[in-house]
Amino acid sequence: MSNDGKKEITLPFNLSVRDLAAQLNASPVQVIKILMSNGVMASINQQVDFDTAAVVASELGFTPQLQKEEVKVEETGEIPLWRRVIMDEDPTKLENRPPVITILGHVDHGKTTLLDAVRHTNVAGGEAGGITQHIGAYQVTHKNRLITFLDTPGHAAFSSMRARGAKGADIVILVVAADDGVQPQTKEAVNHAKAAQVPIVVALNKIDKPDANPDLVKRQLAEIGLQPDEWEGDTFVVPVSAKTRKGLDDLLETILLVADNMVIKANPKGACIGTVVEAKLDKTTGPMATLLVQNGTLKVGNVIVAGESYGKIKAMFDQRHKRIDKAGPSTPVMVMGLDHLPDAGDLFQVVENEREARQIVEGRKAERESRRSLKRATLEELFAKVKSGETKELRLILKADVRGSLEPIVNSLEDLGKKEKDISIQVLHSETGNITESDVALAAASNAVILGFNVDVDQNTKHLAEAEGVSIRVYKIIYRLLEDVEKALKGLLEPEMVEKVIGTAQVLATFKVSKAGMAAGCRVLDGEIRRNASVRVVRAGEVVFTGEISSLKREKEDVRDVREGMECGISIKNFEAFEIGDIIESFVMEKFGG
Ligand code: GDP
User: Fold this and answer.
1) Contact of 168 with 275, CB cutoff 8 Å
2) I need a surface site. Which of 142, 262, 340, 373 has the fewest CB within 10 A?
């Protein structure tokens, strides 16, 4: 504690919003909001400097200090829980474990081919053909040492999945095609690896291609902060061809070299924790999950909690689908016995018994529900707010597949906004690409709605949106998107009200009634006179009074309405001066056009 009673916190020169949030025990959305209130627009993966981070830290009740150089990398940034568990172990109990590797890189740069090549040449146990089914992780041997590979999906849609892959790994292999160089997803992968504080080994792939230009790519790598080792930098760049399998041994050798310079340990007898790599529903066995054990030893019969699922492990299988009864650190295993499918990226933990497991899961569900009930920007709610005058701005985040469709949509939205004088449309952020968790975080922080055109939303993003109460709408036709926004805007504006006459009656006689003063004996000429509708008294074409009916009677009975051709007695609030021949119009207010 510092003198002023605030908690002290040490922050590095630079860190991502996500890491900052984790360090401050806050949600990324909270951090983004504070940044916004200080005029800084930042996304979840964006790096902020110490001065900026310090402002956020102070607002959250911390006394920030700049981290001194000698602090180990492991102790900074967002440390995944499994790492913390290992750090809390008695150091004398720690044993070496195989390094866990994940392969990241731009689409088509050869991630899948490289993984396959490694798998087929080096599968642990030597039976490459034995791996028949994709389970999301596998182990290979190189020089009698095990290496665990995580096989994260490579599509752009799985950006958050890759971020998690990086978090579960010890080393990232960044695949960069020598004929294509550094591309957007290459940079994104570097950010993920840096955010997770995981070292990068570059696999400079496709060197067999005639148009490969390794030197150019190395320069590009240096530009994004990955200075190649041959240029005195600390990033190993290994030329490979996943296709001809050239350089694969060098790559594995380099991985082991990097691993040997790191502390890659766990306590096989310690608390068992790890990460869900993949989960699938099997028709005969129910939920099957591939888990990567990261500390402790997982055994058949253990009760585990994984995200919001739990269960007693009935059976475990290795990568060749062979039954096993235990699995130590860095081992991927398939388990049977969970009650639901957990999400890839969820942590799993062994707990005492099923009662405890149930309690944990119920707690997590309740927490998610309570966060959801703090609803933010569903489209409808935003409209309601605009309507009630609470907000005068409809904020949108727009994602589209290609730049060519982004621009016309933004232009049309802006035009729509100009047409409405009481509300404005603000497109906070528009970009090509799928809807990601950082879009959701931005939407949550700024009360915006996310509109997508021809793009995907992955499961994790959907879950985050649900948890944060952010509304995402995806369209395949531009017209529909605009139509929805327009409809919504119409809904927000005070609907234009018009009067609709529903019936007329003529005064035939006037008479005194004790309580209500003067009343008129009338005949309904057309339509109906309704007790709850408004009335107007018209005399010689002029309106002499407009008001409400105080009583409507048919033969002394109070009635709700009187129809055409019938006679009735009408009294009007605050009006007694009926004259024979007056026309009484019954009318209601209706929204224009319906
Ligand atoms: P991913 O999207 O990163 O998983 O890329 P893929 O592994 O699917 O590879 C994309 C394309 O590049 C495929 O047609 C591969 O056959 C090809 N490819 C991958 N590695 C190499 C390589 O080393 N050399 C050549 N010539 N082609 C490769």
Assistant:
1) yes
2) 373
Band (177; pLDDT cuts 50, 70, 90): very high
* Rounded average pLDDT over 575-589: 91
Q: How far is the CA of 108 from the centre of ligand 1 (A)?
A: 6
Q: What is the pLDDT of residue 73?
A: 27
**pLDDT digit string, tens, across residues 498-517:** 567 899 999 999 988 876 58
177-196 burial by CB neighbour count: b if 16+ within 10 A, else e? Answer: bbbbbbbebbebbbbbbbbb
Provide the residue count of the chain: 594
- Per-residue pLDDT, averaged over 378-404, amounts to 70
Q: Do the Cβ atoms of 592 and 495 come closer than 8 Å?
A: yes
**Which residue has its alpha carbon closest to ligand 1 atom 9?**
110
Predicted confidence at residue 391, as pLDDT, reads 61
- Beta-bridged to residue 451, according to DSSP, are 398, 473
Distance CA 309, CA 272 (A): 16
pLDDT grade, residue 594 (50/70/90)? very low
pLDDT tens-digit series, residues 17-32: 888 998 898 888 888 8
CA distance readout (Å), 138 to 75, 116, 259, 345, 569: 29, 11, 18, 16, 89
Ligand 1, atom 24, lies closest to the CA of: 206
- In short, whether 206's Cβ falls inside 6 Å of ligand 1 is yes
> Most distant CA pair in the chain: distance in Å?
112
With a 6 Å cutoff on the Cβ, whether 162 touches ligand 1 is no
Residues 121 and 126: their CA atoms lie apart, in Å, by: 8
Report the alpha-carbon distance of residue 305 to residue 311 in Å, rounded: 7
Distance CA 583, CA 525 (A): 9
> CA 30, CA 104: separation in Å to the nearest integer?
29
- 116 CB less than 6 Å from ligand 1? no
Query: Which of 11-20, 202-211, 303-312 bottoms out in mean pLDDT, i.e. has the lowest?
Result: 11-20
- In angstroms, what is the span from residue 592 Cα to ligand 1's centroid? 60
Q: Residue 508's pLDDT is what?
A: 92
Task: Confirm if 6 and 34 have CB atoms less than 8 A apart.
Answer: no
